[in-house]
Design brief:
Blueprint: E1 4-6, H1 12-20, E2 26-28, H2 31-35, H3 39-44, H4 62-66, E3 95-99, H5 103-114, E4 118-122, H6 132-135, H7 144-157, E5 161-163, H8 173-177, E6 180-183, E7 187-189, E8 202-204, H9 205-209, E9 218-222, H10 226-237, E10 242-246, H11 258-270, E11 274-276, E12 279-286, E13 289-294, E14 297-302, E15 305-308, E16 312-314, H12 317-322, E17 329-331, H13 333-336, H14 343-355
Helix pairs in contact: 5-14, 10-11
The structure holds flavin-adenine dinucleotide and iron/sulfur cluster (SF4).
Length: about 350
């Protein structure tokens, strides 16, 4: 009886190994072809490092289908839009400065370089990826490493000048040298307006992901969206004993697609992470406690660390300064609009802006 192996075989090396082991007669793949329609050609030509790997996020394929939208791919927005997103070589080759190497910036830099522009990509961090470097350390999300590997390889092959540990300010010579500028500077976490939020035991999710704060045993997270859920799962792995998530809305993990949300909620439950929604007002953070009003009753929860993951604000101050210059300045991703932001939106905007220059 011929046997076909299927599901989450997302690279040709694994596929080949399964066949070599005699574990199956055929391999079936679907999503990896959305992420990279040239996957087999690249494997055949021994260019595995060039493959844009499917990361199993489901965000633009299955989630779109369940919402009756055309299927595409988070890591390859061209999927399903092949006619609309043609790659046309630039008629006038320009020097383009891309500020911020998050998903929006790296995709913009890749496409600009493919079209023949001379591209400088600057980031204040010591690595490309922006907030993908947060998602990739969340248990179960390590496949984002493949996206970073893909972009690193492509940017290098396309001779994009990547300037890391380089924070751009309005008077940077790179700004003066550029013909056009793309601002992809992402977001800053939004600090909730609660009395006592400036206490030293109140930090942002970014402080945790950047390892600036030691993890404590008893933690309250303000927020219940995708980032807050990932944060809770990471904190549990890092040794937190009691975790409570608080939010105004009653539904947790909102914003995560249909195919993944149930699994995230199940994981939070299995890890005994307490979720308290329906909070009408946060009263204060004081003496190691957060006090809030819920269903007409005041309630306090003790915590030795409080982390807010309750929204983001666009990091757009540089855009506001640079628009005063005479150069064309474009803005994408979180820097443009932090609401409903995710890597899918940032990469899509990166690919679009790079076709407009
Ligand atoms: C824990 C976590 C999990 C997530 N999981 C997912 C997920 O599963 N799926 C999904 O789609 N999205 C996920 N996201 C969201 C996604 O990562 C972000 O929406 C996306 O990274 C935003 O992309 P961006 O390009 O706009 O900006 P960012 O990723 O924020 O990158 C901006 C970059 O600009 C740099 N920068 C800022 N100012 C300057 C300056 N002046 N000079 C030089 N560099 C500068 C920063 O250092 C940063 O690297 C997750 C986010 C977090 C925090
Ligand atoms: S959207 Fe995500 S799961 Fe779907 S094909 Fe693309 S990378 Fe894979």
């Amino acid at each position: 009886m011929p046997v076909i192996a299927s599901n989450r075989i997302n690279n040709p090396v694994d596929a080949e190994q399964i066949l070599l082991n005699g574990d199956a007669d055929l391999i079936s793949m679907a999503r990896p072809f959305l992420a990279d329609p040239a996957i087999l050609t690249k494997a055949y030509e021994n260019r595995v490092e060039d493959i844009n790997t499917c990361i199993a996020c489901n965000q633009a394929c299955l989630d779109h289908v369940f919402e009756l939208k055309p299927a595409s791919c988070l890591v390859n927005p061209e999927a399903g839009r092949e006619l609309e997103l043609e790659l046309i070589p630039a008629t006038v080759k320009k020097r383009v400065l891309v500020i911020g190497a998050g998903p929006g910036g790296i995709e913009a830099a890749r496409v600009l370089a493919l079209r023949g522009h001379q591209v400088v990509l600057a980031d204040q961090n010591d690595a490309i990826g922006g907030q993908l470097n947060f998602s990739r350390i969340v248990p179960g999300k390590s496949e984002f490493n493949e996206t970073i590997r893909y972009y690193k390889t492509q940017l290098s092959k396309l001779n994009v000048q990547v300037r890391l540990k380089h924070r751009i300010t309005a008077d940077d010579p790179l700004v003066a040298q550029a013909d056009e500028i793309i601002i992809a500077t992402g977001i800053e976490p939004r600090k909730p307006d609660i009395l006592g939020v400036n206490n030293e035991y109140v930090v942002s999710y970014k402080d945790i992901f950047e390892d600036r704060v030691p993890v404590k045993e008893n933690i309250v997270i303000i927020g219940g969206g995708g980032v807050a859920c990932d944060l809770a799962i990471l904190l549990k792995q890092k040794g937190a004993k009691e975790i409570t998530m608080l939010q105004r809305s009653k539904a947790f993990a909102r914003g995560i697609g249909k195919t993944t949300r149930w699994a995230t909620l199940m994981e939070l439950n299995m890890k005994n992470i307490r979720m308290i929604g329906g909070i009408s007002e946060y009263k204060a953070i004081d003496q190691g406690e957060i006090t809030f009003l819920r269903e007409g009753a005041l309630r306090s929860i003790p915590a030795d660390l409080i982390v807010y993951a309750s929204g983001q604000l666009p990091n757009n101050s540089l855009y506001n300064k640079l628009t005063e210059s005479k150069k064309p300045v474009h803005i994408i991703g979180g820097a443009k609009d932090a609401s409903e932001l995710d890597a899918k939106k940032a990469i899509y905007e990166g690919t679009i802006v790079a076709r407009e220059i």
